[in-house]
Amino acid sequence: MYKRVLIPLDGSKDSEGVFRMIRDEIAPGGEVILMQVPPMETKNIDGKRVSGATQEDEAGVEAMRYPGTIADRIRSDIPNVRYDTMMSHPIVEGIVDFARKEQVDLIAMYTHDRKGIAKFVQRSVAKEVSKQTRRDMKIFKPQEILSNFEAG
Q1: For 46, which DSSP code?
Q2: Which domain holds residue 22?
Q3: How far is Cα 136 from Cα 105, in angstroms, rounded to an integer?
Q4: 3-state DSSP helix/strand/coil % of the chain, to nearest 5
Q5: What is the pLDDT of residues 136-152, one digit of tens each?
Q6: CB within 8 A of 106, min separation 6: which ones?
Q7: pLDDT grade for 118, boundaries at 50, 70 and 90
Q8: How many angstroms from the chain centroid is the CA of residue 12?
Q9: Are residues 95 and 37 in contact, defined by beta-carbon separation less than 8 angstroms?
Q10: CATH at residue 87
Q11: Does residue 139 sit in helix, strand or coil?
């Protein structure tokens, strides 16, 4: 049983489904932390290259609101749920740093499980996180999430 679980969200329904996959592994009184690290976009502002979303950006505002809506949905199952958004980190480093600072027992993530050339073009965030963290990890593929929804 895990006392503190981190679930990074990527905006997909599948990443939101990770909670259903691990809810029975959360200790009584345990905590779930939902977080989102918005992708860092590079922009030209006044001739300078600037990276990262800000609270003033439309993407930044949505990134701050999104994990809260998911937290509201799962509170009936796990009352001790909270959420956070990291605005100025690369995704992998943001997740790893946050997990370390929060001293989570488990990072539970969804992976898109890309195949072929897509696998080489877009790196797997979940795989990179697993390489860089010392926390327990559970990584769920699309077919696992889908079969869990069909079963329950």
Answers
A1: T
A2: 2-151
A3: 6
A4: 45, 30, 30
A5: 999 998 777 766 555 55
A6: 2, 4, 5, 6, 22, 25, 135, 136, 137, 138
A7: very low
A8: 10
A9: yes
A10: 3.40.50.620
A11: strand
C-alpha distances (whole Å) from 80 to each of 31, 70, 72, 75, 150 are 5, 13, 11, 7, 26
Residue corresponding to tokens 């259903």: 20
Query: Which of 5, 23, 7 shows the shortest CA–CA distance to 15?
Result: 7
Half-sphere exposure of 79 (CA within 13 A, CB side): 2
Amino acid present at 119: K
CA angle 103, 129, 140 (to 5 degrees): 100
Q: How far apart are CA 112 and CA 49, in angstroms?
A: 30
- Retrieve residue 94's tokens: 């943001």
Which of the four pLDDT bands, split at 50, 70 and 90, describes residue 31?
A: very high
Report the domain count for the chain.
Answer: 1
Tokens of 85: 């958004």
If we measure between CA atoms, which residue out of 93, 84, 89, 88 comes closest to residue 129?
93
